[in-house]
Amino acid sequence: MNNKKNYAVLFLLLSLIPSASFASSGQAEQWIDLTQHWVGFTSLAIFVAAYMLVMAEEFIHLRKSKPVVLAAGIIWALIGYIYARHGFDHEAEIAVRHNLLEYAELMLFLLVAMTYINAMQERQAFEALRSWLCKKGFGFRQLFWITGVLAFFISPIADNLTTALLMCAVVMAVGGDNNKFILLGAINIVVAANAGGAFSPFGDITTLMVWQKAIEATNGAVDFWSFFALFIPSVVNWIIPASIMHFAVPDEKPVSNDEVIVMKRGAKRIIALFLCTIITAVSFHNFLHLPPVIGMLTGLAYLKFFGYYLKTSHKKDYPSVSDDSNKSQHIMGDVVPFDVFDGVARAEWDTLLFFYGVVLSVGGLGFIGYLGLASELMYTEWGSVLGLSDAMNATPANIVVGVLSAIVDNIPVMFAVLTMMPDMSVGQWLLVTLTAGVGGSMLSIGSAAGVALMGQARGKYTFFGHLKWTPVITLGYIASIATHMWINASLF
Known about the structure:
2 domains
């Protein structure tokens, strides 16, 4: 009964809130401010509830895609209902299609990367690498640093998401049943990949966004090479938490049974094709000004044609099944030596659908008006309240952008900042690039790399496992900001 009374009081209070307001002229005539409307409050509550279920996945065993996909549908249904009531039949449709396009690019990019990784796994590339590392006598601590260094320096060329997926596959192959090493190795990879992606325009989606938009805002002052001023701050961001986590990594060596694992036919060529795919994606964007996903899908065609070659040439390797040694090669699953669609089918679809829910949900909150409201508050009011100089006025907001990107996602947060297009110096634009890029490392759900690894290393790399090391990662976050403001002081 008390609960019913509480709901009644809540409903009464919501009914007293002013209805949705309309802008008076121009393009804004077709946009409704729902930030003070019951639809806005309800959407926020739904999103928060969905994210709480995502965080509790480790305990309730509810796949993380389920609550956010449902939340996305309800949020946009509420938006569509209000817009239809006011005679705006297409505005919500146009907005949701824009969000869907953003998701489609991300999903297809991820799908290609996952397919290549699954193909390399099927060809036993990672098992062979694990065997080689074990035979070299590397311990878990040495492997911790090797995978971290590789993640940091590969992500600026490829991207932090693809790099994290690749390195995590190695960590899982080497780690075996040592869940503690896999957890720490995955955290280290997420931090290293995000830090490495922050100082290159191709390292992260947000750096690409800033590179394109900040050139307009600063009359070309933020060019391609300006981002490399973030190299040392990025190193600091990764090296501090890695140095502390080093002592928690088991001081032992992986179990080695001296088994020699040979990669299946075509494994090295698939690795080469993956590198060609990354180069194609970067080239499509850099030289042809096309979305990187087009280059990735073109690279998927490389794999499809090579798979056709492996299939048609399979009989040359196994001409006869008359003897026992050849019969063992023709067990079910080896009849077709390689099938690219098997790699597609084994992609982490829970992760891909989770991204759908996040992009659409946050896009809905942005369309309601909350992201714009937050950006205006941060960039116009905080600096004046704190009494900062004009050069440092945006500093608190840019630091908070990194914190928000750990909770929500750096793409919509950065999109909100770029929509506001605040008047900032080159140093401030680089600061927000750094914080948005590395801030997501503080939580496992704060970056595409972290979310993807939660799916790839399910049950071993978890939200709460990452959360235990958030204070250490935050220390690196603060140190990287201080380093940037010190060594790049002339840019502010």
